[in-house]
Amino acid sequence: MTDRQTQPRTTELAATAAQAIRELNHRTRGPDAFTGPAELYRLVTELVLLVDALPQLVNQLGRWLNAEHDAHRVRSDNSTDPGPTVSQATTQMADAGHAARDLAHQLARAQQFLAHLGGHPTPPCVLPMTQPEPTTGRQSRGLKWGATT
Prior knowledge:
This protein has 3 helices and no strands. It is an all-alpha fold. It has a domain at 36-116. Helix 2 (37-70) runs antiparallel to helix 3. The termini are far apart.
């Protein structure tokens, strides 16, 4: 078991995940984002795993909020009963979980198609044509240096 004191806080993990997505957005903007379809396939595979875990996460967040409300540890900022706000928040989180599940299924379908793609082999390196060095005198007539006619 790990020591909770050395583990990052839950909010820090969420911030790290959000930063990773921002970095992915930045790195995938240009045409050189991937070396080929296989690399895109791998990224989509990881996104499927990430998004597929979101329904569980938001469900757990909703359960935590309900438990805190039931234990009377949640208050409203306008001094009214927090119950309706808690209910609305957990309903929206449940809806987000369903949307994430749908997104995971769509990404998994895309992944299945990507599995059938590959890049064209890199064309062989073609060296530019070079001009022969100019020759003068005897060499231009096919004679070797030092030879006489």
